[in-house]
Amino acid sequence: MTHIIDGKALALSVRAQLSKEINTLKTRGITPGLAVVLVGQDPASQMYVKNKKLACSKTGIESFSYELSNDTTEDELYELVLKLNADSKIDGILVQLPLPSHLNEQRILTAISPEKDVDGFHPENLGKLLRGEPCMEACTPAGIIALIDSTGTDISGKNAVVVGRSNIVGKPVSIMLLSRHATVTICHSKTKDLPAKIKGADILVAALGKPEFIKGDWIKERSIVIDVGTNHTKDRGLIGDVEFKEASLHAAAITPVPGGVGPMTIAMLLKNTVKSAMKRR
Ligand code: NDP
């Protein structure tokens, strides 16, 4: 029987553990604080920010909201980030992406102090990840590893195939799998014969952002399938990058969309915020 990996339940257990740690911090007069910065009125970004703030309040983290208009200049945003870097109540800074096109994302993300970079996107944290040094790990990749671990699978020696090579998902998760001794193949839009690559995957991470692009009969028997894709469709709502029903016939374990990677991304954001609070204070 295929195991449906319950990302919601796993995220709740991570959050329950964090709540205990936060209660201990509070006895020392410390409340972890997360600054959430949103520029513009993109409905999907507004929803993500709302969910993150709600998760903070349920777990005991104080969130500080900065909702800026679409015509905010890059210098104004940059100055805000510097102000938050210097604010002792703030342990983590989250700048919701994507930013409006007139703002240089890399300049803003690099301005965030690496120790408050709870998204794990700062070049210093990405560099440390590459070198195998302790760092603030990117949330979605860290959530993916936790989901794989929850199945009891030993990653070492497995053939892992990652579809997608973005800086926020594909590349960091590939490095994390490599550091756990998987043999990693990274696929992208120029990859030849993707079905054959996927057929060899003991662990598949699908992060390409194309609804049900990965067909069920490409999936290796008894493999682990992590579907990162979040594709909003008119007729079927939110669906993943993998044909869920058909893939479930072959996989040993698979994440659903929604209810798989999404909740774990938020849980890892909270975890990074608490980690930063413990380290900084
Ligand atoms: P990007 O658009 O930045 O990257 C997509 C990657 O997929 C690129 O590397 C691209 O290749 C590759 N790709 C596109 N088409 C194909 C194809 N036909 N065959 C093979 N590879 C292909 O996306 P993100 O990494 O930001 O996000 C990926 C998905 O994950 C999206 O659906 C996003 O919404 C979702 N997501 C979900 C999160 C969650 O918490 N649940 C968090 C973050 C993302 P190339 O580089 O050659 O262009």
Write the layout of secondary structure elements.
Elements (H helix, E strand, L loop, with lengths): L2 E2 L2 H21 L5 E7 L3 H17 L2 E7 L5 H13 L5 E4 L9 H7 L11 H9 L7 H12 L8 E5 L6 H10 L3 E5 L6 H6 L3 E4 L17 E4 L3 E3 L3 E3 L4 H5 L4 E2 L6 H20 L1
Parallel strand pairs: 1-11, 2-3, 2-4, 5-6, 5-7, 7-8, 8-11
Antiparallel strand pairs: 9-10
Description of the structure:
By secondary structure, the chain is of the alpha/beta class. The chain has 2 domains: 30-120, 3-Layer(aba) Sandwich (Rossmann fold); 139-262, Rossmann fold (3-Layer(aba) Sandwich), CATH 3.40.50. The chain is 43% helix and 16% strand. It is built from 10 helices and 11 strands. Strands 1-11-8-7-5-6 form a 6-stranded parallel sheet. Strands 3-2-4 form a 3-stranded parallel sheet, sandwiched between helices. A two-stranded antiparallel sheet has the order 9-10. The radius of gyration is 19 Å and the shape is globular. The protein starts with a strand and ends with a helix. The model has no long low-confidence stretch (mean pLDDT 98). Residues 140, 163-166, 168-170, 187-191, 194, 207-210, 228-231, 261-262, 265 line the site of NADPH dihydro-nicotinamide-adenine-dinucleotide phosphate.
